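Convert to structure. Protein one:
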Amino acid sequence: MVRRFIEERIVPNYSEWEKAGVVPREIWREAGELGILCPSVPEEYGGVGGDFLYNAIVTEEMARVGAMAPTFYLQSDIIAPYLVNFGTEEQKHHWLPKMLSGEVVASLGLSEPSGGSDLKNLRTSAIRDGDEYVINGQKVFITNGTVSDLIVLACKTDPEAGARGVSLILVETDREGFARGRQLDKIGCKAQDTAELFFSDLRVPASNLLGEEGKGFYLLMSELAQERLVQSIRAVRSSEAALEWTINYAKDRSLFGKQLADFQNTQFTIAQLEAEVQGQRIHVDRCLELHLNGELDAVSAAKLKLVTTQLQGRVMDECLQLFGGWGYMTEFPIARAYVDARMARIGGGTIEVMKHIISKDIFGSPSRS
């Protein structure tokens, strides 16, 4: 069902969405009607109560056709779990059914112009004033920022407390004091709208606090393993798709009197990539199994993201090379996949951050003199 929806409603329109830089809201509502959004949300909040494999199917089927938008994964795999795991009953009953139906599109407000995703040094503030928080600040690189109705916003409720001063607050985008900045022009992921957001004396009720005040850093860290697993699932399925496209092209392409697939260079390149991608497929499936059992830790997720996204970049590069000049033309899906893959080594924590997490686990925290 998911594959049919993607092939009928997403693939034929994707080029137009890339030009527009945004996906029409009706696609979100259609996906909601089919139950594609937030499938692991419990039944009491309108979901089907499925396990994470339901979410993984959607991610894999989107990656199979090279579609980075709509960003169903952000709504289903990242934002909905914050509400399910840390929201009040009132917050869950109010927002989750609307997210499931596609009536509400949500975004996550973390990155800032001054420090990227350095959450300990956030400058966006939310200062308590009676029964309200007054929010001031700016966010950047916000996926769904152009269309979102709800933002899970990382703020400093105690500007002097470092990580202990970070809180998550639900912000409705129709409130006075909220403004969307420019829609950012990216080299890839063109159909995925990305924007700047501004908050100027914006007031929300104290009941919009997600979880406990000062626990925002902990809440964010607790969901990072799943976010990195999602990116790894997409990386491996994208790599598998690129190999499928390249093998089919090599069998059809004639060069110097024989097929491209008959050249040893082609065969050896594909054989090497096929073996490596299969190895990472097994790695991903094992981590999926661990995650379903509640056993996937942050370090294992970092290792997975490190190797799968690095391999994805190399697969796209070497497969594009086999397409020759046609690989550089956007009419071929490998061209789009090549530029889209570059984000995988940045989003959800850069490759360098993954190496830091892994090395810290191996060697411990660096000593300070």
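Protein two, convert as well:
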Amino acid sequence: MLDCVVVGGGPAGLTAAIYLARFHLDVRVIDAGNSRAATIPMTRNHAGFPDGIAGADLLDRMRAQARRYGAALVQAEVAGLSEAPDGLLVSVGDEVIATRSVLLATGVVNRRPPMPDELHATALARGLLRYCPICDGYEVTDRRVAVLGTGGHGTREAVFLRGYTADVTLIALGGKHDLAPAERALLAQCGVATVDGPTTAFAIDGDKIGLRTPERDWRFDSLYPALGSDINSGVAIALGAARSDEGCLLVDAHQRTDVARLYAAGDVVKGLDQISHAMGEGGVAATTIRNDLASEHALLRPVLVG
């Protein structure tokens, strides 16, 4: 029986794996290979990399570090979890893995604009398409920016970006905007223009990203989709884990879910979706798992937490 199976190989899961392996625990990371971090062309928010680091490079470094200390990394997809007398069972293809604990670090999936995969990948790599104003709002300082969305989510993102540039336009994807009077008033007060959809004909036009609405064709330096995300919490919910209305897993201060031996960290948990935050939760979760296992096995000494 393994000590821990970590589901998800993003920043949270790999941080936890490094900790767990260095606690001399038998840990296996099962990663489907779709971490959002891998799609980041360059992050300049992550401390310690003053010139920035590509998300894929950061994950490569973290995987190498986890393997160095003995963590096993497997690329596969977890089909389900079930409870067992001494732990949990993890279903992966035809294999059922017995483990004393499971850490879910499965993240979320951004809802994308309706554009071809190749166009999406190219626009993302060139900074013409961006998903995280907290991560890279600095990079659009004084540039012409569009936010694709409406309602409260679109309003909040547009107003946030207004702190970086005076030229922000909120464009509805489907049809006319669905904005409450208070939201329209706030956007007007902040100088954010609003444009009704539907929005079509996404394209790269030189060093700009182009799109079309019934009003006209537009060109922007960067486009931020504010269309929400889907949380990868299904296997935990099927086991009965509590979640928020959005589907984020609810945990205590030590990353425990309300299912025994099941922990969660990173974007799948309700909170700030940032690499640094996910890594912190991964460290907390790993230490909690170590201490919880120590309470059951006399050979393990609890890790002191200051």
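Residues 4-109+229-294 form a domain with the FAD/NAD(P)-binding domain fold (CATH 3.50.50.60). The chain has two domains: 4-109+229-294, 112-225.
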